Each structure stands twice: as C-alpha cells, then as structure tokens.
TrEMBL record:
The lineage of its organism: Bacteria, Pseudomonadati, Bacteroidota, Flavobacteriia, Flavobacteriales. Belongs to the methylenetetrahydrofolate reductase family. It catalyses: (6S)-5-methyl-5,6,7,8-tetrahydrofolate + NAD(+) = (6R)-5,10-methylene-5,6,7,8-tetrahydrofolate + NADH + H(+). It comes from Flavobacterium enshiense DK69. Keywords: Amino-acid biosynthesis, FAD, Flavoprotein, Methionine biosynthesis, NAD, Oxidoreductase. This is Methylenetetrahydrofolate reductase.
Amino acid sequence: KVTQHIEKANGKPLFSFEILPPLKGQNIQCIFDNIEPLMEFKPPFIDVTYHREEYEYKELPNGLLEKKVVKKRPGTVGICSAIQNKYQVDAIPHILCGGFTKEDTENFLIDMDFLGIDNVVALRGDAVKSEIYFKPEKEGNTYASELVTQISNLNNGIYLDSDLQNTNKTDFCIGVAGYPEKHMEAPSLDSDIYFLKQKIKNGADYIITQMFFDNQKFFDFVDKCRAAGITVPIIPGLKPISTKKQLNLIPHRFKVDLPDDLIMEVVKAKDNEAVSQIGIEWCTAQSKELAKAGIPVLHYYSMGKSDNIRQIASEVF
Ligand code: FAD
C-alpha cells in the first residue's frame, strides 16, 4: 500500500511515476519499454491511468451522423497485473466515476482484488468531448468523494446487493487527486479544498496533485490543506516540459500556470531537443527543493516518455 511504503521509507523521498496504457492495437512491450529505464530508481509503485470511451461522429453518405463509441486506450487493469507479475512492484489503476455505473465500479474493484491489486486512485474523470459539463452515468457516482465511499464500503464488506453483506472484504488503499492551482471547475481554491477534505473523510488515504511548475504553489496548497484539517500524505505530481507545443497545451488542458522564466527559456530554445533539456533542468530543480523539504514521494507524469524522467531521477534519487 502507498501509505505503508511511505511509512517504511522513514523520511527518505520515494520515486514513483504514472504511465498511460498504449493506444489500442499496440503491444504491451511498449509499456515495458517505458518502465524498464526507470526501474533502477526502485519505484515502490507505478500508476496506470484510465481512459474512458469517447464518442466519434462519422458522416454517412445520406448526410446523417453515425455515432461511434471508441475506447482508445483500454487495458488499465491488465497492465497493472502484468507490471506486478513482471517487476514485483505495486501497480495502481486509476478508476473513474465517468462511464461507470456503481455496478460496473463494484465489478472492476472485484477484478482488481482478485488480481492482487491493493491500491487504487479514485477520480471523477473529465467531461467527454461531446459534453460541456461532466455527466455521470445514470446509476453512477457523480463526484470522486462518492466513489471513495463506494470503495471504502467494499473494504468494509458493504456491497450494492444487501444479500452479499459481510462476505469478501477488499482492502484497498485509496488515493485521490488534489489541485494546487484549484480544479478548473472549482469557483475557488478554498471550496476545492473543502471538497478534497470530503474525499479524505469518506476514506481516502493520500492525495496526488495535479502537475505544477512553481513549488511555492505546492507548499501553499499543503499549508492550506493542513489548516483545513487534512492530515494525509500529499504527493506532488511533476512533469518535465519536453516540447514547445506544451507551452500552450499544458495551461489549456490542465489549467495550470507556467512561470514566466520557464516560458521565456522555452520560447527562446532553438528546437525541441533544447526544450527537453530546459524541462529536465527545471524539473530537477523542483524535485531537489521538494526532496529537501521532506516531501515523502515525488511522482512523475511520464506520458509515455522515460528518458527525461530518467535523467531527473539520476540527479535526485
Ligand atoms: P472531484 O474530486 O469529484 O472534483 C471535481 C470538481 O467538483 C471540483 O471542482 C470540486 O471542487 C467539485 N466538487 C467535488 N465535490 C463536490 C460536491 N459534492 N458538490 C459540488 N462540487 C463538488 N482523468 C482520467 O480520465 N483518467 C485518469 O487516469 C486521471 N488521472 C488523474 C490523476 C491525477 C493525479 C489528477 C490530478 C487528475 C487525473 N485525471 C484523470 C483528471 C481528473 O479526472 C479530472 O481532473 C476531473 O475533472 C476531476 O477529477 P477529481 O477526481 O478531482 O474530481
């Protein structure tokens, strides 16, 4: 369990990272190729994201639109099981409210339990492209806090079907998302932290943050969480910039700020190779400061790339 890994580390910062399932049609070898260069830094756990279905519309010859449901990156739980078997490290599937009924969620958790997966990150998920706002399934969870309650219930042997109560109890360690610069839909950081606390009250064991590029935002967020009575570990999420395009993409997609100094360095870089080097240096400096401040785990968003994370880890761990 993540919380046990943190306890065992006794204050020494741990290295962990997140990977994406490959696009449908690709082989699991690309996952192993992503992981392998990072294993020497002994990650106690690796996160695997979950990607819900999207709707695509195809125009038919008669002018009508055909709606197609596509799932581009399936395989989250299968990948977790394969990682655990191959590397003997804990793999953590992300699970969403979006696209799942409570029954689907329960069955997903039972699969995980049977595969020996003891950790999960509980998330709401974003709106799909065709929606303006996130819409839950008819019989699904609306907020991550409700999903946390469902997982905690299962840990206590409380199933949706009352005939099954007190049969097999699961034992999941539950992570949830936190946003140092607030979640994009939240009217304020304080209200976002108020609801973050709800996730902890409902049974979440730790928080992993959205990426940030200015450590002061993380430190202020931790202070605010502590002042609000949140005592669980808060794990920073870190992402090294690697392309010029990300200067526009990251603020747009994740609603996080990039510091002016970083922006200007990237703007002046002659190519993406130079950008990648800037990203590595920036993220290494962030990591060193966080490690020095006694942060228990540094968690990297690999997004399918490991060479830059490898260079950072070799400087920090
Ligand atoms: P919630 O905690 O439910 O919060 C969503 C919004 O609702 C917030 O603005 C919050 O303030 C507000 N809110 C919460 N409860 C209430 C309430 N009771 N009443 C009113 N407002 C409320 N997405 C994926 O699709 N797959 C992934 O694998 C994935 N992994 C992620 C990992 C991390 C570490 C992070 C930070 C994000 C990840 N995401 C992933 C993105 C995430 O799904 C989105 O950011 C999503 O929009 C919010 O999810 P959440 O769990 O934070 O939602």
